[in-house]
Write a structure and sequence with these properties.
Keywords: Coiled coil. It contains twelve helices and nine strands. It is α+β, with helices and mostly antiparallel strands and 506 residues long.
Length: 506
């Protein structure tokens, strides 16, 4: 497929990404006699060696990519390399952005290199085979390159801004010193925007700003995390804010940059390590296309070529997804997205928090005790009426009272420590009862399987008995046939010997 055909085939955004690639004239090309054509593309330099990519043509086959390393000062010192070996080196841009070791990653890596050979007019066509599939893969490679370039530019601007903040001003006594540019402010799109709140954005917390820089441009009205505010209000309405204390603080669960999935959010959440391999486990959020488009949470293990498959129940997976989305919301990565796509998320999130508290038992955070009814007599404002006498006999605990709480009703707060103790004991007892119930269910299931195994053993014994009987019959039949054959051979030998003796006498 030629250069012009590729440009016409790809989408508009892909053509923009294609134009943002470094020009082929800016790449390093060196003569290489073993190649056809005799020129090689420098992918990078490692320890005094060039990492080269070149084309070779076998008899009766189209050109294919090959790789080698060659010493910079001695062209005779060279060694062939495999593509997976090349992808492990520190390469130059834009090749370094597509070096994930996977089958698709290898295709992306080779397509980017072939593109430069095509742009330099060293080959007439590329993408042999399934052109549509390879062009889509090339499109994905372009998005990864664009994401990597934008990430590096953001890091450079951040370092420059940090240096400017630490460097004292060189001009003194200036009535209106120019404010240094900060990389943490939102970037504007081509259409005009109101920048009256630029100063306020420059004073944003640096910790959140570093993450906001990696997000797409947004309007100033989107800076407020509306989903977080609505969730807090929902929990406060049901007096369930204390349930958040059972979760790990967001500061202790770090987000890291990710470029493995260009279509996903640029941050991944670190969940922990694999119990056996100790590989890092991450969660990321990406949009799911279809009739009902929404953002989904996926999990993967670092270093694996496939997504993580879970063997847990669907309800547990749903609760885990709800909690992970909460951390994306708190970090400001998913703002005004989750609640817009899932109206029932606040109620489901509260149910997940209640489930966690129930499983934690006595270790879970308890609801704060409302001590407002416990007022001292001096704090009661006189209203000219005498309070009713307080009954010394508390109402039965099993009967709910229909009388509203008054500032002098102390029955609910007379023994707060005992009430808390009973609640903790009840929770622990319920947890133990649940464990005992699960143990009973498992024991019953094991007993059922033991019965099935016994039946299976009986069937096996019957089968073996029948099999052994058939084997004995077959062996006996064979012995009989073998005996008949021996008799025939003896008879043949005896008669042939007698015939030979008679023939000699004649």
């Amino acid at each position: 497929m030629s250069l012009n055909v590729i440009r016409e085939y790809i989408a508009d955004d892909a053509e923009r990404l294609l134009d943002s690639l470094p020009l082929h004239s800016s790449m390093s090309w060196i003569p290489f006699s073993a190649a056809e054509p005799p020129i090689a593309l420098v992918l990078g330099t490692v320890d005094g060696y060039y990492i080269l990519a070149f084309l070779v043509r076998l008899r009766g086959r189209p050109s294919s990519l090959a790789f080698c390393q060659r010493r910079i000062k001695n062209s005779g010192d060279q060694q062939r390399l495999q593509q997976d070996q090349v992808m492990q080196y520190s390469l130059n841009a834009p090749f370094k952005y597509n070096t994930d070791v996977s089958r698709t990653g290898e295709i992306r890596f080779s397509l980017v290199i072939l593109w430069y050979f095509l742009a330099k007019e060293l080959i007439d066509s590329a993408f042999n085979g399934n052109d549509t599939e390879k062009i889509e893969c090339f499109h994905d490679a372009l998005k990864r390159i664009d994401l990597g370039q934008r990430t590096e530019k953001g890091s450079q601007r951040e370092d420059q801004s940090t240096h400017e903040r630490q460097t004292p001003p060189m001009i003194e006594d200036s009535p209106e010193p120019e404010r240094p540019k900060t990389p943490y402010s939102f970037r504007s799109r081509e259409r005009g925007r109101n920048r009256s709140n630029a100063d306020a954005r420059e004073t944003t917390n640096e910790k959140l700003s570093a993450e906001l820089e990696t997000l797409p441009p947004a309007d100033a009205s989107e800076e407020e995390n509306s989903d977080l505010r609505k969730l807090i209000e929902h929990l406060r309405h049901y007096s369930a804010l204390y349930l958040l204390d059972n979760l790990t603080e967001p500061e202790r669960i770090p987000f890291e940059n990710q470029d493995r999935f260009p279509e996903a959010q640029p941050k991944k959440l670190s969940l922990g390590k694999h119990a056996k391999t100790h590989d890092a486990i991450y969660a990321y959020m990406r949009p799911r296309k279809g009739p009902r488009a929404y953002h989904e949470i996926n999990f993967f293990v670092e270093g694996k070529r496939y997504h993580v498959g879970t063997s847990i129940e669907q309800s547990d997976t749903a609760r885990l997804t709800l909690i992970v989305k909460w951390y994306f919301i708190v970090a400001g990565i998913a703002k005004d997205v989750v609640l817009r796509e899932t109206k029932a998320y606040p109620e489901r999130f509260k149910a997940a928090l209640e489930f966690i508290a129930e499983r934690m038992g006595s270790a879970a955070a308890t609801a704060p005790i409302d001590t407002s009814p416990c007022l001292e007599p001096d704090d009661i404002e006189p209203d000219g009426t005498e309070p009713a006498p307080i009954s010394t006999t508390p109402p039965p605990a099993s009967l709910p009272t229909t009388r509203p709480n008054t500032p002098l009703q102390l029955s609910d707060a007379q023994t707060p420590s005992q009430g808390t103790k009973r609640t903790a004991e009840d929770a622990e007892f319920e947890c133990l009862e649940q464990i005992f119930s699960q143990n009973t269910d498992l024991t019953n299931q094991i007993n059922e399987f033991d019965q099935k195994l016994d039946i299976h053993d009986v069937k096996r014994a019957n089968f073996m008995e029948k099999w052994e009987k058939e084997l004995d019959d077959m062996l006996a039949m064979r012995d009989q046939l073998d005996a008949e054959r021996r008799d025939l051979r003896r008879s043949f030998k005896r008669r042939s010997k007698a015939f030979a003796e008679n023939y000699e006498d004649d």
